[in-house]
Amino acid sequence: MSDDAKQPQHIQKLVPKYRRIALKPQQVCLAVVDMQLFFCNPKSHAFVQAAPNIIPNINALISTFSRAKKPVFATYYAATPDEAPAMAAFWRHLLPPDDPAAQIDPRIKLPKNASVFRKPTYSAFVATRFGEAVLATGVEQVVVCGVMTHLCVETAAREFFCRGVVPFIPADATATIDEDVHVASLRAAAHGFAVVTTTAQILNAFGSSTD
């Protein structure tokens, strides 16, 4: 993980040279953030064009964590006006919990024992038991993937960091509205609160491969 020779140049540019934190396969869980039809279906007004492209990498991570018997968590966004007044004011439209678009994209192959949480705002730690469930596992690290990089993924990473859990963000298993915003979010994360990496590097730490 910390070997520059194994790290793509575009990732090397994001990661401070003084930061060398290795992934610990025995002390890590996986958090799949908001890979739901609302963001993954081209017919949705909230469609993230890059989201379908990261599904294979996310499934590779899920498969690897499942084989290693490591905890897999997932979130999806849906809210009522009472739950998320700021979201309602900002976006003018909330995704109701009973809307089919709230469902996790069926292309995401979560294991049957995955813990799935609905969240009403960017944070998976607000008005949910997500944080309590993850912290109860005793993990020291978490791999955070999904959408959107600069909103819910970044928020989750910050929240984990503030609770003493080191986040790893695979740049090629996260997506957002455009590449500039994606890279800016990853740069901010790498500077202060997450290890920015790739799917291949995470799988290599487990002795797996994307091939």
Annotation keywords:
alpha/beta; 211 residues; 7 strands; 35% helix; Rossmann fold; seven-stranded parallel β-sheet
Shape verdict: globular
Largest sheet: 7 strands, parallel
Instruction: State the secondary-structure class.
Output: alpha/beta
CATH class: Alpha Beta
Fourth-tier CATH superfamily name: Isochorismatase-like
CATH topology: Rossmann fold
What is the alpha-carbon Rg in Å?
16 Å
Domain count, please report it: 1
Count every beta strand, where a strand is a DSSP E run of 2 or more residues: 7
Work out the helix count: 8
Ends distance: 18 Å
How large a portion of the residues is in β-strands, by DSSP E? 15-25%
> What is the typical, i.e. mean, pLDDT?
93
